[in-house]
């Protein structure tokens, strides 16, 4: 079947967005897409070369930081200036069988996938509340928050935690006019997606569980994030939205 795709556009003119993990994959696509919709984008990531390319191609403002370190995460958020729209996208996945999960891998995963989102959101939310303006936050979670995937113990735990963090943030920040949601993608064809699912012996059974019959592209996630950040989603708050081709419906 020939797939016909339309790229949706939103108008974020005059809004300043912060995207973490913007150097590669989904985060890069989100940063580029928000910039194409008129947002001024502050792009936070670990590798300076990736950010230099993004700054050149999409006029993003680069902030190099390792969000695994709590102080660096806070400094990065503070250095970004006043932010209206936040996307907590940075994430890592360290594949280990459950019996071999190391404390170091578990702690690193939680530090990047959960704690950095907490810290960066605190700083952005404090700024929004201080300025008395509304805002929107999207946390990039995963379908792994609701199903147990082999070799993904730390990752699944971190994404379950991120979903819960999203709900608590929605509960506490909603009264300040700050909407908070999560998106929960299925396997997406990025460097991380290829690392975890590049082996056909793994990707075949996973694909068979997706009724639409294909993995996600980064643009699928970027457009969903943009929708949740936009005024079109003005009454959507505290959700964890699957972008999974129907994986969770089966
Ligand atoms: P990716 O291809 O590995 O890209 C991740 C980006 O985040 C990279 O630019 C990376 O920078 C940056 N990053 C990682 N750790 C960081 C840290 N400590 N500090 C600052 N930046 C950091 O991953 P992706 O597939 O685009 O995934 C993005 C998000 O989507 C993650 O939260 C992931 O869990 C989620 N997700 C992915 C999939 C999938 O199948 N791909 C499915 C569901 C959910 P460096 O390369 O310089 O380290």
Structure description:
This protein is an alpha/beta fold. The chain has a single domain (about 15-190, about 220-235), classed as Rossmann fold (3-Layer(aba) Sandwich). The protein has eight helices and seven strands. It has a seven-stranded parallel β-sheet with strand order 3-2-1-4-5-6-7, sandwiched between helices. Helix 3 (about 70-80) packs parallel to helix 4. It is globular. The relative contact order is 0.15. The chain binds NADP nicotinamide-adenine-dinucleotide phosphate. NADP nicotinamide-adenine-dinucleotide phosphate binds near residues 50, 67, 185, 188 and 193.
* End-to-end Cα distance: 22 Å
What's the CATH class, please? Answer: Alpha Beta
Mean pLDDT: 96
Task: Give the strand tally.
Answer: 7
The portion of residues assigned to helices is 40-55%
Annotated CATH topology: Rossmann fold
Strand content: 5-15%
Structural class: alpha/beta
Biggest sheet strand order reads 3-2-1-4-5-6-7
Task: Tell me the count of domains.
Answer: 1
Kindly provide the radius of gyration, computed on alpha-carbon positions and rounded to a whole number of angstroms. 17 Å
CATH homologous superfamily identity: NAD(P)-binding Rossmann-like Domain
Describe the structure concisely.
This protein is of the alpha/beta class and 250 residues long. The protein has helices at 25-36, 48-58, 70-79, 103-131, 153-173, 191-197, 200-208, 218-229; strands at 16-20, 40-45, 61-64, 85-88, 135-140, 178-185, 240-243.
Keywords:
250 residues, alpha/beta, Rossmann fold, 15% strand, globular, binds NADP nicotinamide-adenine-dinucleotide phosphate
């Amino acid at each position: 079947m020939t797939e016909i795709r339309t790229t949706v556009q939103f108008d974020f003119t005059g809004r300043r967005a912060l995207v973490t993990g913007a150097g590669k994959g989904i985060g890069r696509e989100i940063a580029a897409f928000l910039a194409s919709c008129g947002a001024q984008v502050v792009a936070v990531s670990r590798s300076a070369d990736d950010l230099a390319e993004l700054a050149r191609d999409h006029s993003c403002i680069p902030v190099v930081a390792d969000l695994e370190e709590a102080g660096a995460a806070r400094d990065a958020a503070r250095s970004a200036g006043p932010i209206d729209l936040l996307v907590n996208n940075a994430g890592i996945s360290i594949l280990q069988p459950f019996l071999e999960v190391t404390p170091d891998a578990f702690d690193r995963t939680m530090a990047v996938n959960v704690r950095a989102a907490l810290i960066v959101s605190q700083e952005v939310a404090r700024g929004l509340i201080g300025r008395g303006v509304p805002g929107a936050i999207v946390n990039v979670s995963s379908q792994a928050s609701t199903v147990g995937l082999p070799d993904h113990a730390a990752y699944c735990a971190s994404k379950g935690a991120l979903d819960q963090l999203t709900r608590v943030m929605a509960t506490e920040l909603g009264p300040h006019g700050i909407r908070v949601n999560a998106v929960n993608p299925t396997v997406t064809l990025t460097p991380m997606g290829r690392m975890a699912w590049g082996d056909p012996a793994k990707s075949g059974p996973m694909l068979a569980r997706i009724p639409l019959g294909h993995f996600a592209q980064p643009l699928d996630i970027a457009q969903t994030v943009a929708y949740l950040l936009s005024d079109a989603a003005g009454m959507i708050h505290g959700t964890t939205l699957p972008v999974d081709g129907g994986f969770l419906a089966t």
